[in-house]
Amino acid sequence: MVSLDLRECNISDNALLQLCNCKQLKEINLSSCSENRLGITSEGVIALALSCPYLREASFKRCCNISDSGVTALALNCQFLEILNLGSCSGITDASLQALGENCKFLHSVNFSSTQVTMMAIGYLTSVCLCSYLRLV
């Protein structure tokens, strides 16, 4: 399996732990459009990052229990990451952008809307990102 779309599904970290055998996973969408998703935390994202090093696209919009530790695990273990959606993940700070900037050189689309990220961190990310086009939604 290379792509998995579970947006709007009622899942938790336990479901992410089951994905540890999907080593070739490249895309995952765990977003919620209508309400905050509480069952997915940084612990689940860390397990996913450790198990799926080829992840290129990940969407965790409104998974509000994800923090910098989860994003840092993605940055360190999923270095081919191109698209990342963390909109409304209120636990995300500048540390996440720093980790992504240092490790994810293929990153070209990032959504950090409604997070704690500052303009200084966005400036840092755009200065270190080697890609030709970076879109911060």
Write the layout of secondary structure elements.
Blueprint: E1 3-5, H1 13-18, E2 27-29, E3 37-41, H2 42-51, E4 57-59, E5 63-65, H3 68-77, E6 83-85, H4 94-103, E7 109-111, H5 119-128, E8 135-136
Parallel strand pairs: 1-2, 2-4, 3-5, 4-6, 6-7, 7-8
Helix pairs in contact: 2-3, 3-4, 4-5
Q: Overview of this structure, please?
A:
This protein is α/β, with parallel strands linked by helices. Helix content is 34%, strand content 18%. The radius of gyration is 13 Å and the shape is globular. The mean pLDDT is 90.
Query: Strand order, biggest sheet?
Result: 1-2-4-6-7-8
Distance between the termini: 28 Å
The averaged pLDDT comes out at 90
The radius of gyration computed from the alpha-carbon positions, rounded to a whole number of angstroms, is 13 Å
Instruction: Enter the CATH topology name.
Output: Leucine-rich repeat, LRR (right-handed beta-alpha superhelix)
CATH class assignment = Alpha Beta
SSE string, helices as H and strands as E: EHEEHEEHEHEHE
Major beta-sheet overview: 6 strands, parallel
Low-confidence blocks of residues: none
Individual helix count: 5
- How much of the residues is beta strand, in percent? 15-25%
Shape type:
globular
How many beta-strand runs? 8
Helix content: 25-40%
Number of discrete domains? 1
Structural class: alpha/beta
Oligomerization: single chain
Family: Belongs to the AMN1 family.
InterPro entries: Leu-rich_rpt, Leu-rich_rpt_Cys-con_subtyp, LRR_dom_sf
Pfam family, one: LRR_6
GO biological process, one term: SCF-dependent proteasomal ubiquitin-dependent protein catabolic process
